[in-house]
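[Discussion] Sanity-checking designs against the backbone

I'm trying to build intuition for which residues belong where. Below is a structure token string of 454 positions. I'd appreciate it if someone posts a full sequence so I can compare it with mine line by line.
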């Protein structure tokens, strides 16, 4: 009787899961293993929102495996040690895992390969399991990754995509393996009140609804802040309850300008992953340094975190983050530009705060988007500064997004909600809305001088 282990990491699904599919095909029995990694919690990468969402994902995975005659085996501890132990205990000769892109995942993979080999077992790593196209699958001449999105996208779009795999019909699991209880969502405290639900079934339901009723308008409405007309699939992509390759296939099959625009965003995700896979230190070091000597601004940073900068559109976005553990992409751009350019505070400060709250908080997407906005990343216009007032006028013309998230301004009609300092004397104070932490022109001048542009 042959046995294989499928070690789940960022691929918590049964559909289109290359590691699981290969394990089921290769062996008579499979151990579907998840190791709750102590170190991830210790380094602070498991804040409540993501722990709660993960608990949903593991419960859903266990349920789906049980419906196929199996179950999820959960262990707690150091993943390499636990995976080797489980493989030995089950008599498995092979462990299957999805390739990861962060330094942590790459290091884990190297150690796991060595530890299994020392025990006479094999590690098989599945490349295009987390992204649609594996990092390194398309590269520019003479380089290991693309540093600019447009040429990457040209090649990405033309590259063949693997065909999505069906969910296995049966997953026979060896008897007698000890498993910890999967963490329960209810046991996680300190989550955002409006946090979304996780799990593969929920992800598939959302994606089906998106294809039916959302994607066709995406090209026109993805920047409509109050319209909230994006897919909200990012946490499912982060935890791998949805497969990026399957999403691309099915969106392409749906066709139309909306689907094209949606697929392009999925290519952005792949783009950032291939940058991080090639340059893992971009998670903390400037990808393209500009010699920035960032300011320390405790009061400004605290106001930014609390959604009390005095700029309603920025504050609305930050409060959406606190309430939902998620923020609209336009809000993320505005909030990040405000911190890194208007306040000229280090992007790492903002990225860390986002990672504390975002349910989709992801090293590749978060750190590299922050770097993109800060101008230390892959943006070809590193010194652009988003003006929150012109952006608000464009993407929240009636002030509805501001009124939704900033209750102090709920009774201010129309676009006036974007400029509370222009309300009649004393009105802003009466409403309890804070004063501006900085004048935009002052922030702009400071930033451009720092970058040698003034
Ligand atoms: C400062 C900043 C921080 C960010 N941090 C994260 C993060 O931690 N995790 C994360 O998944 N995304 C992050 N993003 C990218 C983007 O904002 C989110 O992916 C998106 O808002 C999620 O909403 P959605 O699923 O409705 O996206 P949709 O607009 O429906 O897009 C579909 C999918 O495409 C991908 N995508 C969309 N935009 C981007 C982008 N700019 N870069 C990479 N992938 C993208 C996401 O996986 C998303 O789910 C960040 C963006 C900025 C500006």
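Best answer:
Here's mine. Compare freely.
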């Amino acid at each position: 009787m042959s046995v294989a282990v499928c070690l789940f990491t960022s691929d918590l699904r049964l559909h289109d899961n290359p590691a699981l599919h290969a394990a089921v095909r290769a062996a008579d029995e499979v151990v579907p293993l998840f190791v709750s990694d102590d170190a991830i919690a210790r380094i602070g990468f498991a804040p409540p929102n993501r722990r709660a969402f993960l608990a949903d994902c593991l419960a859903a995975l266990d349920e789906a495996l049980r419906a196929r005659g199996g179950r999820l085996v959960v262990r707690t501890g150091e993943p390499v040690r636990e995976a080797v132990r489980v493989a030995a205990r089950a008599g498995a000769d092979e462990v299957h895992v999805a390739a990861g892109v962060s330094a942590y995942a790459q290091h884990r993979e190297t150690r796991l390969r060595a530890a299994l080999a020392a025990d006479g077992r094999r590690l098989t790593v599945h490349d295009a399991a987390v992204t649609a196209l594996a990092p390194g699958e398309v590269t520019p001449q003479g380089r290991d990754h693309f540093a600019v999105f447009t040429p990457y996208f040209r090649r990405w779009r033309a590259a063949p995509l693997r065909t999505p795999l069906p969910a296995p019909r049966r997953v026979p699991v060896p008897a007698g393996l000890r498993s910890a209880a999967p963490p329960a969502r209810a046991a996680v405290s300190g989550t955002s009140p409006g946090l979304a639900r996780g799990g593969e079934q929920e992800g598939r339901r959302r994606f089906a609804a998106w294809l039916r009723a959302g994607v066709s308008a995406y090209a026109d409405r993805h920047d409509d802040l109050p319209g909230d007309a994006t897919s909200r699939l990012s946490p499912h992509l982060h935890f791998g309850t949805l497969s990026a390759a399957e999403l691309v296939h099915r969106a392409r099959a749906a066709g139309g300008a909306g689907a094209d625009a949606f697929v392009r965003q999925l290519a952005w995700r792949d783009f950032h992953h291939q940058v991080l896979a090639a340059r893992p230190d971009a998670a903390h070091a400037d990808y393209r340094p500009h010699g920035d000597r960032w300011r320390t601004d405790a009061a400004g940073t605290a106001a930014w975190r609390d959604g009390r900068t005095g700029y309603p559109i920025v504050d609305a976005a930050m409060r959406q983050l606190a309430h939902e553990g998620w923020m609209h992409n336009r809000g993320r751009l505005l909030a990040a530009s405000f911190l890194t350019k208007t306040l000229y505070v280090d992007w790492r400060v903002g990225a860390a705060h986002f990672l504390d709250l975002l349910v989709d908080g992801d090293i590749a997407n978060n750190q590299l988007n922050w770097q993109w906005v800060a101008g230390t990343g892959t943006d070809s216009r590193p010194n652009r500064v988003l003006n929150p007032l012109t952006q608000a006028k464009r993407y929240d013309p009636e002030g509805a997004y501001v009124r939704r998230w900033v209750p102090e301004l709920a009774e201010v009609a129309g676009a006036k909600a974007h400029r509370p300092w222009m309300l009649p004397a004393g009105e802003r104070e009466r409403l309890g809305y804070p004063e501006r932490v900085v004048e935009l022109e002052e922030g702009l001048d400071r930033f451009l001088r720092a970058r040698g542009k003034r």
